[in-house]
């Protein structure tokens, strides 16, 4: 009985964590470049059940026991995996807004990112092209992180007047600066951080990978609000079902303690 109690409890915990991921997706439905998280739910290792026959003891081994079959011992959320499918493009008309448009990738799990520098001077990656220019004339994210060029240096534009070509080249007056576009063959190895940043290994765009850059556009979040709300309702129903099972086990345990063995 206690095994079923813990199985139902693990189901409730898993649905709660899935609900948290879905709620976070909904909260970022309007965040440019946001990649929706998907909860990966797995079952705990199966247990093999045996029926002990008369005279069978652990000391004698299980040679006289009958095999019943296997049973699962609950579920758990193994990890949250971002969905790297590109979001829709939205025209803003703002010159500092830049959208990265995916082209052809030789790797199914490949993805492209803008390279930025966080407050600790470390390189991070983002799909959020909602850039601006700070007081010193550097191109930055709205959180204040420097946007990097192909050489890993902050980009100095001197103001808002610059042109971004389709190949990611910034034309600032007579100067041409290549945006730091990074590619990773396996985006699932990256770790999500706050402010739309990803941490991990990414490098220069190899041959065979195509992309384009659009100035005055933003890549929107790839969260499907309708589908996410449906998933939230399903997770809530699953939570409720496990809660009812847990309540039934609790009532059975209560009867076992208070009623079974009572002398009439």
UniProtKB/TrEMBL annotation:
SUPFAM superfamilies: Flagellar hook protein flgE
InterPro entries for the chain: Flag_bb_rod_N (IPR001444), Flagellar_basal_body_rod_CS (IPR019776), Flagellar_FlgE/F/G (IPR020013), Flg_bb/hook_C_dom (IPR010930), FlgE/F/G-like (IPR037925), LlgE_F_G-like_D1 (IPR053967)
GO CC list: bacterial-type flagellum basal body
One Pfam family recorded for the sequence: Flg_bbr_C
Transmembrane segments: none
Keywords: Bacterial flagellum, Cell projection, Cilium, Flagellum
Domain Flagellar basal body rod protein N-terminal span(s) in chain numbering: 5-35
Domain Flagellar hook protein FlgE/F/G-like D1: 110-169
PROSITE patterns for this protein: FLAGELLA_BB_ROD (PS00588)
Compartments it resides in: Bacterial flagellum basal body
GO biological process: bacterial-type flagellum-dependent swarming motility
Similarity-based family: Belongs to the flagella basal body rod proteins family.
Protein's name in the database: Flagellar hook-basal body complex protein FlhO
Species in which this protein is naturally found: Ornithinibacillus halotolerans
């Amino acid at each position: 009985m206690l095994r079923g109690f813990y199985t139902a409890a693990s189901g409730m915990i898993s649905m709660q964590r899935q609900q948290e991921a879905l709620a976070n997706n909904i909260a970022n439905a309007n965040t440019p470049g946001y990649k929706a998280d998907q909860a990966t739910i797995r079952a705990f290792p199966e247990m093999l059940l045996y029926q002990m026959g008369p005279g069978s003891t652990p000391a004698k081994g299980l040679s006289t026991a009958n095999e019943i079959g296997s049973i699962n011992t609950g579920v758990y959320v193994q990890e949250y995996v971002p969905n790297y499918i590109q979001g829709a493009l939205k025209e803003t008309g703002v010159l500092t807004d830049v959208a990265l448009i995916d082209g052809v990738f030789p790797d199914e799990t490949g993805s492209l990112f803008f390279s930025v520098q966080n407050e600790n001077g470390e390189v991070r990656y983002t799909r959020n092209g909602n850039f601006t220019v700070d007081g010193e004339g550097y191109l930055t994210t709205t959180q204040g992180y420097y946007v990097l060029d192909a050489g890993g240096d902050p980009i100095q534009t001197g103001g808002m007047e610059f042109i971004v070509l389709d190949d990611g080249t910034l034309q600032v007056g007579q100067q041409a600066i290549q945006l730091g576009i990074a590619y990773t063959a396996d985006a699932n190895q990256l770790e999500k951080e706050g402010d739309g940043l990803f941490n991990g290994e990414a490098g220069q765009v190899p041959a065979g990978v195509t992309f384009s850059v659009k100035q005055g556009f933003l890549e929107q979040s790839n969260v499907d609000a309708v589908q996410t709300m449906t998933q939230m309702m399903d997770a809530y129903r699953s939570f409720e079902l496990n809660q009812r099972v847990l309540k039934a086990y609790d009532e059975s345990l209560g009867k076992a303690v208070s009623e079974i063995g009572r002398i009439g």
